[in-house]
Amino acid sequence: MIEDREPIRVALLGCGTVGTEVLRLLQDQPEEFAARTGAPVQVTGVAVRRPHKHPEVPEHLITTDATALVEGDVDVVVELIGGIEPARSLLLTALKSGKSVVTANKALLAEYGSELYAAADAAGADIYFEAAVAGAIPLLRPLRESLAGDRINRVMGIVNGTTNYILSAMDSTGAGYSETLDEAGRLGYAEADPTADVDGFDAAAKAAILASLAFHTRVTATDVHREGISAVSPGDIAAARSLDRTVKLLAICERVVDEDGTESVSARVHPAMIPRSHPLAGVGGAFNAVFVEAEAAGQLMFYGQGAGGAPTASAVLGDLVAVARNLVVAGKGPRESAHAQLPVRPMGGTPTRYHISLDVADKPGVLSQVAATFNEHDVSISVVRQQGRGDEASLVVVTHTAADAALKSTVDKIAQLEVVREVVSVMRVEGEPS
Fold this sequence. Notes:
Layout: E1 8-13, H1 17-28, H2 30-37, E2 41-47, E3 62-63, H3 66-71, E4 76-79, H4 87-96, E5 100-103, H5 106-123, E6 127-128, H6 131-134, H7 140-146, E7 152-158, H8 161-173, H9 177-186, H10 195-198, H11 201-215, E8 225-226, H12 234-242, E9 245-257, E10 263-275, E11 287-294, E12 298-305, H13 309-329, E13 351-352, E14 354-360, H14 366-376, E15 381-387, E16 394-399, E17 402-403, H15 404-414, E18 420-429
Parallel strand pairs: 1-2, 1-4, 2-3, 4-5, 5-6, 8-10, 10-18
Antiparallel strand pairs: 7-9, 7-11, 9-10, 11-12, 13-17, 14-16, 14-18, 15-16
Helix pairs in contact: 1-13, 4-5, 5-11, 8-9, 14-15
């Protein structure tokens, strides 16, 4: 009988928006979780910094001593504190003593994932982290398990709800970045300090995790090229619209194969124009979606709520059930897979495409001088369009694929041409044939 089994004892570290929901569901549905895991699931303690701010936590469970809780008589540690320390030290303590871990800590995994995996392997413990990348969306487990027998070539997605809300609103209303960010803050889509979101740090940590899983290679957040959205202007949005495209902040992880067959991994986060026909183009508001391209499975897309208390708690509890099942049957979850050990390609050597908008003089020879500059840097032009006359003259160029460094050098040289008054905007183009 399930009720006769020893309970799975759980320590909960942190009880914010997500932790509160995790605790509530475990307390409200004990029979459900016992049936799913094969044993009762019992929260034995909840560690918080300020107990008076958590009246929802029963007094006999609450503690400020997270270390003592982790070192105590528990089987699983669920970490929802965030940040690097003390989360790193607490989880290493848990893993080294053979206790399994469930975490939603993307920053920690992106920087110290290999250390945590090594500790888990050495002690025979599990580490699960589905909630670290895309909230409720089942994404990491498919990459880690369902597609383990396939060869993944590309993972491209919208993994930050704040920036997606801002760019979606700019596209639908024509408003500027600053006013849209202010509106996002008022509606609760942006933090009081939105730096981690709008400057791409959040998405870069998630890209590192995705690239590591997809390509069996250790990729850290510092390996990920990162650009935010603060420089995206209404003009960029309008230019994209004129080409039947939209602008999204994308996390792009891909396997790059050179002509000699040498493979490397590229991981980057930056705004990009994508065709409105692309599945990611229709992902609006604060939703997340990730597009996966694999050799056997083909194209897959994962879509849903990427943040919020209840959605993220769903992913955390899914991991907790998996860990508890493993404990009941003396099994083990998937281990780290870094056997490929592919080099991480710097952004300058990564093949990309550019959309370039130029303010140019209205005189003969402008197009030929600009085209000659592209030719000098061995960059091929896909689309060129000249608009307006006189002071309103402009030139729009979309390139074919080339190394990012070559494209950047081309733009720098074009900016020096006498016929070019200003390089108005430069944005990468993704999601269509090159």
